[in-house]
Amino acid sequence: MEKPRQLPLELSHGTGYSRDDLITSPANEEAVALIDRWPDWPSPVVVFAGPPGCGKTHLASIWREETGAVQFNGASIGSGAAKLGAGPVLIDNIDAAPVDEAGLFHLINAVRGAGTQLLITARRFPAAWGITLPDLESRLKAAATVEIHEPDDLLLTGVVTKLFADRQIEVEPHVVQYIVRRIERSLSTAIHVVDRLDRKAMELKTRITRALAAETISALDEGQWDFDI
Questions:
Q1: Which domain holds residue 174?
Q2: What DSSP string runs through 45-107?
Q3: CATH number of the domain to which 83 belongs
Q4: pLDDT tens digit string along 136-152?
């Protein structure tokens, strides 16, 4: 049997972070517009906040590719801040671990002094990061914060359609709509559902039908398979 193919898109593999892979909808259009406006930003520091699977990392990766930004780890910012040049900086998923508050404070000052920009992505708004350093709290209040909402039907439909197209799989529109209406509002879930459907269809040597989609989504709902993002 042919070895199941791995999906080279989003979250785990860089090839899924290209501008060609980006689909815009009301859920993310404000953030996309800000990426397109760079470097004409309303503040040197911009925060993209939104739930897991909403596409923050995808947008951040596009911005990094287009700007040549240097990426820092949010838990150890101080170790890299001293090496900051005159270019932009990215910190992805900063609230996944306790924030290096002193490092972030000095980094923001350095970014402002260099006349460049800092893009931060997070699940929550800065007020929920548990910041205790008053000067850093003040700096973050001056940042421009953009909310990225959970994917709407338009975005999920576009993503699922493109995922199948990238695999050269023809799926009827009504099957795509069935998937979109029944999965979690998450791009990562959409990716893994398509991946599982592709594998299952290859194993059974069949087309991807509504029945196969129903079986796959039911297995997901019942916790019969897991994925880690």
A1: 151-220
A2: EEEEE--TTSSHHHHHHHHHHHHTPEEE-TTS-HHHHTT--SS-EEE-SGGGS---HHHHHHH
A3: 3.40.50.300
A4: 999 999 999 999 999 89
